[in-house]
Amino acid sequence: MNSTPTGTARFLPERVRAADTAHLWHPYAAVPGAERPYVVTGAGGTRLSLWSEEGTYHVVDGMSSWWSAIHGYRHPVLDAAVRGQVDSYSHVMFGGLTHGPAAELAETLVALTPEPLEHVFLADSGSVSVEVAMKMCLQYHRSTGSPGRRRFLTWRGGYHGDTFHAMSVCDPSGGMHSLWGDVLPAQVHAPEPPAGFDTEPDPLYVDAFERLAAEHAGELAAIIVEPVVQGAGGMRFHHPGYLRELRRIADAYGLLLVFDEIATGFGRTGELFAADHAGVAPDVMCLGKALTGGYLTLAATLCTGRVARGIAGGEVPVLAHGPTFMGNPLACATALASVELLTRGDWRGDVARIEAGLREGLAPAERLPGVREVRVLGAVGVVELEAPVRMGEATRAAVEAGVWLRPFRDHVYAMPPYVCGPEDVAVIAAGMVAAARASLGEGPR
Ligand code: PMP
């Protein structure tokens, strides 16, 4: 799948640079930005072609475009799915209309996700699917006679998106809260559970979490967490046993349980969904990112029949949400193709191979002074430093080593496309080690 990347002659890199600098916002950035982003001139298989004033680079993508491009770039099956749908219809409104790609996708997602999840809301981004999940929970309680249950219980260190309700359940020590604390809805933030996929649940932690749930029970609508892997909030792993405790606590105090599987869904942690590590079913589940194999923007909020019936029985029996691009046929057709490609292939073997390759390739980082921890789970590898990553140095070192990485805070991390072969994974791991060294002020070795 390492086809040669192609570019588009129209978009000359120098002109892209000028227009970008003049006009474009980038994620979490200022305009005009101090950072000069690499210009993408092509992508194919596991590779990206990048241009900067210093040169052109053909790099292995260690980021899957933020957890999404699990099948790599320009995959013939996904390309064909997009083209095929363009030949039928690209977009139609979803109010009063429905179509094959959305209906079949819903059926497929319900079949793959934990048993009681039955209904699917097709949102247009992960953050919106979290808003919808939170709205579902609030509306459920309103409709079933508990309108006072308006708050959410989460644990610290999470990330759920950049819209306001999603921000309110992100880590309260992060930038979101320091900037917006005075306008965010006040939620209940428990401490983070002890980290480590293999670290058995701490009964003292579980007791403290339960006490918080009991104390606030009358005002809580739901518990919301990222299961097993906290992604953009700190790349921390947790024992799946905590999910079983959350299920028990939610049931004991009348709370709904929401799993945000936007980053972890579709095999990333070694199970199809992170909830599967624990055999636990949430009441509401958010999916996104890898849903379309990274081709188009689509997310989904699934809920149980109980939640849907609760909402339907209320004074306002409808879920008041309906984005213009809800159920976009191009995105749904591509998602369907991507999910089928994944589930018909050996994704479990691919992810296990990447996990083994990352473990082996990242071993040298464990011995670097200034490295706090190296951890790997499924197709996620993390080198956590003791100090914030020096972004410019780290990114440049990775690109020079032939890898695209986007470190954040204290973390150099990768979540490669599943189509990466052993050589690609070795290159990614070596690039991560080079990035960590560069950030720590060491020259290449
Ligand atoms: N939840 C989780 C767990 C995420 O990782 C992200 C994206 N990083 C989001 C929600 C928000 O998704 P989006 O960026 O598509 O709005």
What is the straight-line distance between the termini? Answer: 30 Å
Mean pLDDT: 96
Over all CA atoms, what is the radius of gyration? 22 Å
Q: Identify low-pLDDT runs.
A: none
Subunit structure: Homodimer.
Cofactor: pyridoxal 5'-phosphate
GO biological process, one term: biotin biosynthetic process
Family: Belongs to the class-III pyridoxal-phosphate-dependent aminotransferase family. BioA subfamily.
What does this structure look like?
Homodimer. Pfam families: Aminotran_3. It catalyses: (8S)-8-amino-7-oxononanoate + S-adenosyl-L-methionine = S-adenosyl-4-methylsulfanyl-2-oxobutanoate + (7R,8S)-7,8-diammoniononanoate. Its cofactor is pyridoxal 5'-phosphate. InterPro entries: Aminotrans_3, Aminotrans_3_PPA_site, BioA, PyrdxlP-dep_Trfase, PyrdxlP-dep_Trfase_major, PyrdxlP-dep_Trfase_small. With about 450 residues, this protein is an alpha/beta fold. The chain folds into two domains: about 15-75 and about 345-440, Aspartate Aminotransferase, domain 1; about 75-345, 3-Layer(aba) Sandwich (Aspartate Aminotransferase, domain 2). It is built from 14 helices and 16 strands. The strands form four sheets. It has a seven-stranded mixed beta sheet, with helices on both faces. A four-stranded mixed beta sheet has the order 1-2-3-15. A hairpin with a 2-residue loop joins strand 2 (about 45-50) and strand 3 (about 55-60). The longest helix is centred in the C-terminal third of the chain and has 20 residues, at about 345-365. The protein starts with 12 loop residues before the first helix and ends in a 6-residue tail after the last helix. Bound molecules: 4'-deoxy-4'-aminopyridoxal-5'-phosphate. The site of 4'-deoxy-4'-aminopyridoxal-5'-phosphate (PMP) has 14 residues, from helix 5.
